[in-house]
Design brief:
alpha/beta, Rossmann fold, 3 domains, six-stranded mixed β-sheet, 6 strands
Length: 380
């Protein structure tokens, strides 16, 4: 029985909710022409075992009555949303899971937690803020990711994100999902519980990414900003030196000024793009509303040590002592850089004028890391 390429891909999508690992896998299974081999490849893997693992606690998932009782006993109030019960059940949480989850929340720690919970670190100063919703994980890791917040690193191009991903892979114990918007949307549609395996989602994603809007767990967003003009220059040089970049053909023969004036795609990824990625809009109103409603830890590309110290402080995960330098300007060749072009100064002036909101935010708000972690959402 011969299988075609479409048969293999269809089987993966229907049974595992994803495409095969690579083309070599498809070719190997086509060559086997053996149903047993195909089924073994699909059903013996980790993906199938996770999606169809025995649900020993399926009949013991937390009920709406238990949610109300736990909130009343631990927080002294009723649940704020009637939809919390279904959300906790979607996260496969039992009543015991929910109790631990609530006891690690900022609200519990503020009002009652000091009677039951140790400080986030043994050397914490009096009044030091607690991590976002869970105690320190400096002891050997034993906590299930689904019981702590889902962290999102919003990797903005040319802000040292590649180097930070290497650091985060160590900080978050390898429980990191590297992705892109299309893949993330597909994963959420196939199985939102997929993200219970991970502590951190990272990629060129924004604050409204599919994993965040699914709302299965509390979200904490991590991001690094860079001076918008410097970032635009670095991004321009990188795109022209990288043939596979989607904007390469559009700007490879243009100066920085010409690209900024005439390329809609380049303007989109430069003009206040950092604000739109992190806050969902490019005005200070968007910034203020997002900071009130979401949990963030934000920093600057020229102060990565301070940013990582803040992430370590608010998550409880110790950071590595060194930051690798990856994907920097010296890592790739290419056409003449923007800095030696005759219209370079004019380009910088026009970029600065267009990015005034972003320049103001970076200069006025990020003199040191900015965090809203642990603060309950405010609704005006």
């Amino acid at each position: 029985m011969a299988f075609g390429r479409d048969d293999i891909i269809s089987a993966y999508r229907r049974l595992l909710g994803r495409d095969p690992e690579d083309e070599a896998t498809v070719v190997a299974l086509m060559a086997s022409a053996d149903l047993d081999t195909l089924l073994a490849a699909l059903l013996d893997g980790e993906d199938w075992r996770w999606r169809h693992r025995p649900r020993a606690n399926a009949d013991r998932l937390v009920t709406d009555e238990e949610v109300a009782a736990i909130y009343g006993a631990l927080l002294g109030r009723a649940p704020e949303d009637a939809a919390l019960g279904p959300r906790y059940r979607a996260a496969t949480m039992t009543a015991v899971d929910l109790m631990f989850f609530v006891m690690r929340s900022p609200e519990f720690k503020k009002n009652a937690g000091r009677r039951f919970s140790r400080e986030y670190a043994l050397d914490a100063s009096e009044g030091a803020p607690h991590p976002a919703g869970h105690g320190a994980l400096r002891l050997p890791f034993s906590l299930e990711p689904r019981l702590v917040p889902l962290y999102h690193f919003l990797h903005i191009p040319k802000t040292a994100g590649t180097s930070l991903n290497r650091v985060f892979d160590r900080m978050f114990r390898g429980l990191v999902f590297y992705t892109n918007p299309a893949e993330l949307t597909a994963k959420v549609r196939a199985d939102p519980a997929f993200f219970h395996r991970y502590l951190l989602v990272t990629g060129h994603i924004d604050v409204n990414n599919a994993a965040a809007t699914a709302g299965v767990r509390e979200n904490v967003f991590l991001a690094v900003f860079r001076d918008p003009v410097q970032r635009a220059v670095s991004l321009y040089d990188y795109i022209r030196a990288t043939a596979e970049h989607p904007l390469h053909c559009a700007i490879r023969d243009l100066t920085l000024l010409e690209a900024f004036r005439s390329s809609g795609g380049f303007r989109k990824v430069t003009i206040n793009a950092q604000l739109r990625t992190v806050f969902g809009g490019a005005t200070m109103r968007h910034v203020r509303e997002a900071l009130k409603a979401r949990s963030y830890v934000l920093g600057r590309q020229d102060a990565l040590e301070d940013f990582l110290d803040a992430v370590a402080h608010f998550t409880g995960f110790p950071r590595p002592p060194a930051i690798p330098r990856l994907n920097t300007a010296g890592d790739h060749g290419g056409p003449e850089p923007a800095r030696i072009q005759p219209d370079h100064d004019q380009a910088l002036a026009e970029i600065a004028e267009a990015c005034r909101p972003e320049i103001a935010f970076v200069g006025q708000w990020l003199s040191r890391p900015l965090s809203t972690v642990g603060a309950p959402p405010r609704r005006d």
